[in-house]
Design brief:
One of its GO terms (cellular component) is checkpoint clamp complex. It is a single chain. The strands form 3 sheets. The protein has a 9-stranded antiparallel β-sheet. 32% of the residues are buried. The chain is built from 4 helices and 18 strands. The chain has 2 domains: 2-142, Proliferating Cell Nuclear Antigen (Box), CATH 3.70.10.10; 152-270, Proliferating Cell Nuclear Antigen. Strand 13 (186-191) and strand 14 (196-201) form a beta hairpin. The protein is mainly beta. The protein is 15% helix and 41% strand.
């Protein structure tokens, strides 16, 4: 298996850093899935998960890979996303950035970074990030999730605004009640023995009504979710998304899409039963 990618555009490095910044604290491990024309970052945190879809041509001038075999032309690597984030943060002023799969004392995803220098030649910085190569028999565990059935699909308010609200709510409860309806209303609420707080957002765009469950008798479907997992999603404001969509399956699941020209995130948060 071989992998090599290179970019000389600082704006691409900045965008890639922001993308990793959205998910790097979700879990200590992530899966980097590489194929000929796509890159995916997959994070699982208990029953919650995120699937990230990137087009390498948006980030690299050169992108070459050879997978396990000609038939199974993919590479699956387990790594620590925090280490990737730190490597990219060190490249914010780089002349170029090169990624490659290497064999040191163990398999590594190596970041080679040329930084500006007062000398005639640049300063080369190398980060060797240990990885575990996922065997073929386990690949099916990291397939793209299916679209859930949902009771309502709604365009969410700006993530930065939601983050300010949820950061305060985290002081009240470990669980967040997320609800919406087909009138364009979206609510976030928390409850404790002492207080109940709800924030309302109105006049939002309702989406995909033709795909919603027809037999839904609940006018305000909701999900009681882990507030920490929901808060991770709100870090998506860093990439300045074009749109954020929330699908709610009553008392079952939240599916949230963060859509950007260069990346798509799919987050799945299951309901927490009382």
């Amino acid at each position: 298996m071989k992998f090599r990618a290179r970019t000389t555009e600082i704006a691409r490095i900045h965008t890639l850093t922001k993308i990793i910044g959205v998910i790097h604290k979700m879990n200590k491990t992530a899966i980097l899935r590489l194929n000929a024309d796509k890159m995916h970052l997959i994070v699982k945190n208990g029953a919650s998960s995120v699937w990230t879809d990137l087009d390498p041509s948006n980030f690299f001038d050169e992108y070459n890979m050879e997978g396990l075999t000609e038939e199974f032309n993919e590479i699956y690597l387990e790594l620590n996303p925090e280490n990737v984030f730190k490597a990219l943060k060190s490249a914010q002023t780089a002349k170029w950035l090169k990624l490659k799969l290497t064999k040191k004392q163990c398999p590594c995803l190596t970041f080679e970074i040329e930084l500006p220098s007062v000398m005639l030649t640049g300063r080369l910085v190398t980060h060797d990030i240990p990885v575990t190569v996922i065997p073929r028999r386990l690949w099916e565990e990291f397939e793209e999730p299916e679209m859930i059935s949902f009771d309502v699909s709604i365009a969410m308010p700006p993530l930065k605004s939601l983050k300010n609200v949820v950061d305060r709510m985290r002081n009240i409860s470990s669980y967040l009640i997320v609800s919406a309806n087909r009138d364009g209303n979206f609510k976030l609420g928390v409850e404790s023995d002492m207080v109940s707080v709800t924030t309302h957002f109105a006049d939002l765009q309702v989406l995909n009504e033709e795909l919603a469950n027809e037999n839904n008798n609940n006018n305000n479907p909701q999900v009681r979710a882990d507030i920490k997992h929901f808060a991770h999603i709100l870090n998506g404001y860093q990439i300045n998304p074009n749109r954020v969509v929330c699908n709610i399956l009553n008392d079952k699941m939240l599916q949230i899409f963060i859509l950007h020209d260069q990346v798509t995130f799919q987050f799945y948060i299951p309901a927490v039963t009382t």
